[in-house]
Amino acid sequence: MRDYRFPFDAKHLTALVALAWLASFAHEFVHHLNGAFVCGEAGRMSLSLFALANACEPGWPWTTAAGPLLSYASMWLGMALVLRSRWTWWGMALVIANKPVLRLLTAAMGGGDEGVLFDLLSPVAGRWWATACVAALSLPPLWVCYRMLAPRRRPGVFAAALLLPMLPILPVPFLDRAWYGEWIGGGASLPAGFGVPWSVWAVEIAVAAALIVASLAMPRRVDRPRHA
Q1: Which residue range forms the structural domain that includes residue 46?
Q2: Tens digit of pLDDT for each residue in 41-56?
Q3: Residue 133, burial from CB neighbour count under 10 angstroms (0-12, 13-18, 19+)
Q4: Is position 138 within any domain?
Q5: Is 159's pLDDT higher than 80?
Q6: Whole-structure pTM over 0.85, yes or no?
Q7: Does 36 fall in a domain?
Q8: Are 70 and 79 in contact (CB under 8 A)?
Q9: Buried-most residue among 9, 81, 122, 181 (CB within 10 A)?
């Protein structure tokens, strides 16, 4: 049985929040990048939203699928790191940062990218197909991370590891709509690079710097969980 003790000190939590923030941005940026490829020009993007260029509709399913593909690939990469018992924290962090539980809940409620895509295939049962797909892709990484934790207080530690890094990020979509809603809707003009406001780039660079600083402060070792 695995016996990994998940750290909740300031440097690890800071790195986890930063990684979750950057994972969200990467998810949206892949939507945005794929949209630029399909449409022939970049649309508009903010902290958590994107819009295709000039109402470019024909290729939108591909742009919608791009974000989840990156998120699930990151989760499964994290699972692989955990299974190899190397860089265990980073493996767990990759799984947590890509919000598997939130993706599952959103799909079950009929929303999210997966819900949109499966509604194209089956408008009646799309929600349930989406939920089944998300469960199949999300639950294995979650289960591997759960089993890696030390048995003592495992459920509470696992819940805290999933929840705590999400709390600072939950208000972002609401703030994003307030700050950049007109930009995304095409009703405002902002200085931007590749369709992303420079103010958004500045935020992402600052978060990446926080991740680097926090990671450099972590113990320089490869995690090797003990076996009971």
Answers
A1: 10-216
A2: 899 999 999 998 876 7
A3: middle
A4: yes
A5: yes
A6: yes
A7: yes
A8: no
A9: 81
